[in-house]
Design goal:
204 residues; alpha/beta; Spore Coat Polysaccharide Biosynthesis Protein SpsA, Chain A; seven-stranded mixed sheet; 31% helix; globular
Length: 204
């Protein structure tokens, strides 16, 4: 296999924490919140279908049941705190390159209804970066990336770049449009989690 799926599970979950959910004292990671009887990240792993690792900081033991490597951020000296999802993309690129993969496909852990053909369509688009779009909105954490971009990305993070869509665009990103419903619905709040639970229990 020439590509590896990487789940980005490094979000701070601030809105969940404010409501008593999410990472932090008395809470758990948003990725591990129960959805239809399983951790939310399990839905993403199943739908992406090519997952080889999870990008996350903190204690890796919390993901032990998935049997996947857990990749912490490894940032250049002097990089400011909270560099965002691009740090997870870099961690995935570095790990994948060491394993002999040419590309990675990333998906955030809070998108439990992503299309099952996401990876195949992004990879088929070619180019150094291919990112998903829906109704004119870019979703740069749902993207395929050439691992050859890891050194440019490392430099960009050291220089303070934080916006995945902007950096992807600078690398010549191709856009892959998805249609129908809200395939990239993401869970940020307790209300979102309740809606996700409703959707997860719909037939089909």
């Amino acid at each position: 296999m020439e590509h590896a799926g990487i789940i980005l599970a490094g979000g701070a979950s601030r809105r969940m924490q404010a409501a008593g959910h999410g990472a932090g004292p008395g809470g758990i990671d948003k990725a591990l919140l129960p959805l239809a009887g399983r951790p939310m990240i399990a839905h993403v792993v199943e739908r992406l279908g090519c997952v080889r690792a999870i990008s996350a900081n903190g204690d890796p033991e919390r993901f032990r049941s998935f049997g996947l490597p857990v990749l912490p951020d490894r940032l250049p000296d002097g990089t400011p705190d909270r560099p965002g999802p691009l740090a997870g993309v870099l961690a995935g690129m570095d790990w994948a390159a060491a394993q002999g993969f040419a590309r990675i496909v990333t998906a955030s852990a809070d998108t439990p209804f992503l299309p099952r053909d996401l990876a195949a369509r992004l990879l088929a688009a070619g180019g150094p970066v291919a990112m998903a779009t829906h109704e004119g909105r870019d979703h740069p954490t749902l993207a395929a990336w050439d691992v050859s971009l890891r050194e440019p990305l490392r430099r960009a993070l050291a220089e303070g770049v934080r916006r995945p869509a902007v950096w992807a665009e600078e690398q010549g990103a191709r856009r892959v449009a998805f249609f129908g419903g809200d395939p990239f619905f993401n869970v940020n709040t307790p209300e979102d989690l309740a809606e996700a639970e409703r959707r997860a229990r719909l037939p089909g």
